[in-house]
């Protein structure tokens, strides 16, 4: 009787991952080092270079804000790199909480664009990262105040636990078509509330946020991955979405509910 051929380790791991349940989304888990501010500091971070990047390369098309990665010039790429280098050289803990929030959201989004540009052309951010990883979210991408940071650190260990605001999910952008839009304006302490409200309105009223087809309600997978940030149960999540919807309200929905997400790159 012939013996089966041995499966090499990398192939076996790939097959195992392909047949295993999806890995759970990161939980909100405070990194206490960052839970500090100086409300007496009236200083502000400078985000003009990030705003210039958005003005030049963000394209509004239907329900999507698309980023024109292929058109980024060498000079503008250097300006983006310099912006990231400049703000990461500062310690945000010495600023007010409002300044910090804008700092972290802008840094997260700028780093995401930088990661795509580093590997462009690429069809999806999910193709980035180390061997057998799904995306770059656990890769070290910046150093701030002597601490190495990943995108997951910024979102799930700083932004979510310190501010406890579900609208954070509408503000950070993952360079994908199903992601809430990259805002056309850089966040500042002064405009944060307006930008968060606008982001929530845009997403909940778009088909990538919620779509009704017959007896089926399709929601963004964000409401599945991070449901606890929006409500204690499915109906509470629908009620939270309804706060911003102009069309048919979702609370009380008794039909089928499914979740979907398109990881295709958010490019024209």
From TrEMBL:
Residues 1-24 form the signal peptide. Keywords: Signal. It comes from the Bacteria. Pfam families: DUF547 (PF04784). InterPro entries: DUF547. Residues 93-203 form the DUF547 domain. PANTHER family: ELECTRON CARRIER/ PROTEIN DISULFIDE OXIDOREDUCTASE, ELECTRON CARRIER_ PROTEIN DISULFIDE OXIDOREDUCTASE. This is DUF547 domain-containing protein. The lineage of its organism: Bacteria, Pseudomonadati, Pseudomonadota, Gammaproteobacteria, Vibrionales.
